[in-house]
Every structure is written in C-alpha cells, then in structure tokens.
Amino acid sequence: MKTDIEIAQETPMLPIREVADKLGIREDDMEFYGKYKAKLGSALEKRVADNPDGKLILVTAINPTPAGEGKTTITVGLGEAFGRLDKKALICLREPSLGPCFGIKGGAAGGGYAQVVPMEDLNLHFTGDFHAITAATNLLAAMLDNHIQQGNALGIDTRQIIWKRCVDMNDRVLRNIVVGLGSKADGFVREDHFVITVATETMAILCLAKDMKDLKERLGKIIVAYNYAGEPVTAKDLKAVGAMAALLKDAIKPNIVQTLEHTPALVHGGPFANIAHGCNSVRATKLGLKLADYVITEAGFGADLGAEKFLDIKCRMASLKPDTIVLVATVRALKYNGGVPKENLNIPDLEALKRGIVNLEKHIENLQKFGVPVVVTLNAFISDTQEEYEFIRDFCESRGCAFALAKVWEKGGEGGIELAEKIIETIETKESHYTPLYEDQLPIKEKIEKIAKEIYGAAAVSYDPAASRMIKKIEDMGFGNFPVCMAKTQYSLSDDPKKLGRPEGFTLNVRDVYVNAGAGFVVALTGSIMTMPGLSKSPAAFNIDVDEDGVITGLF
After folding, report:
1. What is the set of active-site residues?
2. 0.70 surpassed by pTM
3. CA–CA separation, 269 vs 42, rounded Å?
C-alpha cells in the first residue's frame, strides 16, 4: 500500500495559475511562491466584494482516538467530489504546525487520494506564515524586556509579565525557563515561558483580522504585562505595533494551493483547537465565499472544541452563518469509545459499537443546539461491515441527521459523491437557523458553565482561586462581554483524556484564565492542558528523511 506522501509525489500538479483560473482569479491577483503556491492580496478582495456569498459547509468530528477519524481527508475529498459534480467549490483549511508534524500526529494535508498538494511544502515551511508569526511574537517579547532594561518608564511589574515567547515545535523544556542570567547588561532575571506558535495570541489575531488596519488595531490591544498599580500594559504602549505588522504583512494574505484533483484550496492560519480557537483565517473563509458557490472548511479536533469555537467565536466575530455541518466518525473510533483496544478494532463488534456510539450521539445533540442542519458521515475502512453501517445510519436518521458513507481516502472525489449529494440536498431542503450557544452579556463564569454543562456534559465547574481572581479582574477591565475560548483535552468530552464515550456527572476544573484582548476572547485553561506540548518517546521525526535528490520521505 502506498503512503500518503508517495501518492502525493506521484500525482501531477497543475500550475497554480490554472487552478486559480477556475475561480476567476487573475494572474495579477497572485503573488507566486514557485509554480504551485501563491498568496492572494487585498486587490482581489476588493474586486469580488460585491459577489454573492456561496454556501458555507463546516466539517467537524467526534473526539479523536488512536484509530483516526480523517476529518481533513473528508474535507479535501468533499471538495474534490463537488468538483466532480461540476460545482464551483473550494476548501478552506488551516496550515499545519511543525509540532504535530514531527510529534505524534504527523502531517495534516489529508490522506490517500484526498490530499492538498504540494504536501511536503504545506507540512513544513509552506509560505513562511508561521515563521513570521513566531518572529512577531518574539519581537514583542524582546521589546518588553528591553523596555524594562532601559529604565522601565511604564512601571512594569516583572512578577506580572504575561506575554510569552514562542517556537513552532513541541519542546517541553521551554515551558518554564529563567531569562536574564549573567551581568547587569544581560537584563533582569525573571521566570519566563514559551508556548507553541499555534497557541499564541498573534496567531489568533492573524486568523481573526479582517485586514491590515484591523490587524494593527488588534495587535495594539495585546496585554503583555501589568504595572505596579495592576493596570494593563499593551503592545501599543511599547510602540511595537508597526514593527510587528511589518513582519506580518505577507502572512496576513491567504495562500492558494490545490488538491490532488486540482480543486482550489485556501490554506491560511493554524490556531490549535485544544488551546486556541482552531479555525483557518476569517479572511480566507470570507474571500472563499465570494469566489465559490460552495466553501468547505474544517474546525480542529472534536466538535466539542473546534466546532464550538467556530460557531461561538469565529462566526460571531465575522458574521458568518454555516449552511450545514458535516460530522465525521469511523466505525473503528466508535468501537474504541466502546472499550475495544486499538489492536482489536478491525474485528466486527456490534455490541462495542452500540456502547461507543454515545460519543457520536452527544456531538449530534451539541451541534443541533446551534440550529444548523447536521450530516453524519463515516470515513470508510476495509474492516467495516454492512451491519455496522446500517446500525449507524439508522441511529443518525432517527435523530434527524442525514447520513452518507465516504470513501475518499481510497477513491478521492469519486468516493465523496454520495456525501456531496447528501449535503446539497440538505442545504436545499433544510434551512440553517444558526445561533450562538450563549449571549455576549453573560458573565464569564456563566459562559464557561454553559459550555461545560451543555457541550461537555459536566455536572459542575470548579475554579482554582487564581482563576476566579483573574475572571473578576478581566470583568473589571471591561472584557466580560468577550466569548470564551476553552483550552481542554481533545481526547474526551471531559477534561480527563481517559474518560471516553459520553462521560456524565463530572466536575470540570478551570485552573487558570487570561484575556487575549487583541484576539477578543477569554481563554480558560482546564484540566492538565499544556500550551507547549512535548515530544513522545518515538516521535514522527524518527521516520522523516530526505534523499540526495531532495525528495522527502516519512511525512505520513
């Protein structure tokens, strides 16, 4: 069996100008990064601003398991299927982080015959967006420490510095460090921290900004520290906004590439969904809606994280309204939720499926609370049985969801036609009445508790004393109307990754809370979630190599 990277390397690509032409994008609209990648500038956005919006399709999934769900694969294959139906469609995805690429997850360009290409470029440096975000974040950190060194005119309390440096790699030893060691000229000694680039507020801001003006306004609102009076100190106070924006001037432009079947793909931004808001950029999505009749986008991890944040944060801020939601599952993952060990998932087991389908049931119920029609799809595996398919189909249809099987990994767009047709039928026959889960004016704790109880299934929420104090401070500063971005394990509906299926009666623990004033949301850290992951004992990096001809192997 061929690997994903072998399939991608053997499939011819079209010059990106030919792919873009399908959407009416002119050569003058593009800034080329070689033959197969390009950035799209603001001139194109202005030219298509009066076009009617296409239909917006969100792809999400059940909680991820070691068995794999294939959400990105479904998203890509679905775009290819729309193309085979002669529909004007494109997909909008996030850019992969180097952390997961070299960690456990591997690449994030889809799989099999449903991939975005050039796959190696996408999974590695791509067009340099993440490097620019890293540089801008670290520039602000350097200017903050330099301000303190040069006299600290703003009276920054070095015990209340909250801006962290970043690197786009899993590196646990950087979570907690000490900086400024050495002589007086080497700065003030203090504890510091690193986060992974995709968890930074800079990344969140880039993905939520409408344009350069909005980007700069948001950057200026970043709170980096508090002064001795307890008042916030911002990036604007440090006079860092212009320089940060200069580093991000190209990164803010969406990137266009293609799938293996030459469906256009806008790939831009990449905030983690278990820590940040988990969606591609607003700018790419809104541009896509002006260029195509159908835009298929995805939200990271399970629907309890990525989809909830897409619907409660991104859609709220950008005035987006999804027309339908595709919920991805696999027979194998449902059996895993039913207690079957990974090594036995290929064995038919209807009883385990019946036990594990409660995870899918909870996600269906959650998504229906937002008033958007739901289509459930199974990413097919060769070990699946017809009896298992029929059980899941009946289960979904009895709960008001359309159902379709997808075989896009094996067959590309052809394997997604049944799903694409079911989505078109759903859009044409069921109206979307999208409504966020909660209102802006609710107090922060009530927003957290609404998400915890209604989406996760918690019975109660507990708060560490530091979290409660910070919530009061955030509300006193006037940010109480912000939406909440929950940082939680992706592996469970609860904050305990070992609780599979549909846990109930648990208490969700909020250990810390902070405000991303520039991004415009409040972050609540739950359980043991880390903003800087670590590598596993056998990371994916062990298998990645490049030969004398520059051909990369091992990127899944």
Report:
1. 71, 73, 94, 105, 273, 301, 381, 409
2. yes
3. 17
